[in-house]
Amino acid sequence: MSERIAVYPGSFDPVTYGHLDILQRGLSVFDQIIIAVLNNSSKNPLFTVEERVDLLKKATAHLDSVTVDSFEGLLVDYVQKKKVGIVLRGLRAISDFEYELQIAAINKSLNPKIETCFMMTSNHYSFLSSSMVKEAAMYGGSVHELVPEPVEKALVHKFGKRSSV
Ligand code: ADP
């Protein structure tokens, strides 16, 4: 039987435990997952694509079936180049649904052979987003419970540490 491979695309600016939860659960459905970091300078990311890839590699080092890559341009072109038929995305709230529906519909019209597969967030991470993590870290809040250690360190490096008054 051929291997079931999915591409998990996103900004991952930076990776959170919410992303990792989807990844971990995705591995119960797919044999291999390629995390594809979107090189999206237009979104004005906090971390460069190289930094985001590096943090993802550190955060997934224990997962043999996961590889980390980056891409520019259309997701459907990247997915086709990798000879993969499935895109994995996570769904949090209703607000995610509308956005994800649009992307999935556009991708489907660009390449009808590619399917998008959604996994629901775990309740525990339903509130968690990269932007929330950045906001918290920027104002010196602890993000220890929200992101893996290398990400926490990288955020402290970017924003500095709050003095323990
Ligand atoms: P994008 O800019 O493409 O939305 P993100 O890095 O924000 O990139 O998200 C990548 C994917 O991970 C998206 O499908 C998003 O819905 C999902 N995701 C992000 N955070 C969570 C979370 N806490 N629980 C479940 N899925 C999540």
TrEMBL record:
<keyword id="KW-0963">Cytoplasm</keyword>
<feature type="binding site">
    <location>
        <position position="75"/>
    </location>
    <ligand>
        <name>substrate</name>
    </ligand>
</feature>
<keyword id="KW-0460">Magnesium</keyword>
<comment type="subunit">
    <text>Homohexamer.</text>
</comment>
<protein>
    <recommendedName>
        <fullName>Phosphopantetheine adenylyltransferase</fullName>
        <ecNumber>2.7.7.3</ecNumber>
    </recommendedName>
</protein>
<comment type="pathway">
    <text>Cofactor biosynthesis; coenzyme A biosynthesis; CoA from (R)-pantothenate: step 4/5.</text>
</comment>
<keyword id="KW-0548">Nucleotidyltransferase</keyword>
<feature type="binding site">
    <location>
        <begin position="11"/>
        <end position="12"/>
    </location>
    <ligand>
        <name>ATP</name>
    </ligand>
</feature>
<dbReference type="InterPro" id="IPR014729">
    <property type="entry name" value="Rossmann-like_a/b/a_fold"/>
</dbReference>
<feature type="binding site">
    <location>
        <begin position="125"/>
        <end position="131"/>
    </location>
    <ligand>
        <name>ATP</name>
    </ligand>
</feature>
<feature type="domain" description="Cytidyltransferase-like">
    <location>
        <begin position="7"/>
        <end position="135"/>
    </location>
</feature>
<dbReference type="Pfam" id="PF01467">
    <property type="entry name" value="CTP_transf_like"/>
</dbReference>
<keyword id="KW-0067">ATP-binding</keyword>
<feature type="binding site">
    <location>
        <position position="11"/>
    </location>
    <ligand>
        <name>substrate</name>
    </ligand>
</feature>
<dbReference type="GO" id="GO:0004595">
    <property type="term" value="F:pantetheine-phosphate adenylyltransferase activity"/>
</dbReference>
<feature type="site" description="Transition state stabilizer">
    <location>
        <position position="19"/>
    </location>
</feature>
<feature type="binding site">
    <location>
        <position position="89"/>
    </location>
    <ligand>
        <name>substrate</name>
    </ligand>
</feature>
<dbReference type="InterPro" id="IPR001980">
    <property type="entry name" value="PPAT"/>
</dbReference>
<feature type="binding site">
    <location>
        <position position="100"/>
    </location>
    <ligand>
        <name>ATP</name>
    </ligand>
</feature>
<comment type="function">
    <text>Reversibly transfers an adenylyl group from ATP to 4'-phosphopantetheine, yielding dephospho-CoA (dPCoA) and pyrophosphate.</text>
</comment>
<comment type="similarity">
    <text>Belongs to the bacterial CoaD family.</text>
</comment>
<keyword id="KW-0173">Coenzyme A biosynthesis</keyword>
<keyword id="KW-0808">Transferase</keyword>
<feature type="binding site">
    <location>
        <position position="43"/>
    </location>
    <ligand>
        <name>substrate</name>
    </ligand>
</feature>
<feature type="binding site">
    <location>
        <begin position="90"/>
        <end position="92"/>
    </location>
    <ligand>
        <name>ATP</name>
    </ligand>
</feature>
<dbReference type="InterPro" id="IPR004821">
    <property type="entry name" value="Cyt_trans-like"/>
</dbReference>
<feature type="binding site">
    <location>
        <position position="19"/>
    </location>
    <ligand>
        <name>ATP</name>
    </ligand>
</feature>
<keyword id="KW-0547">Nucleotide-binding</keyword>
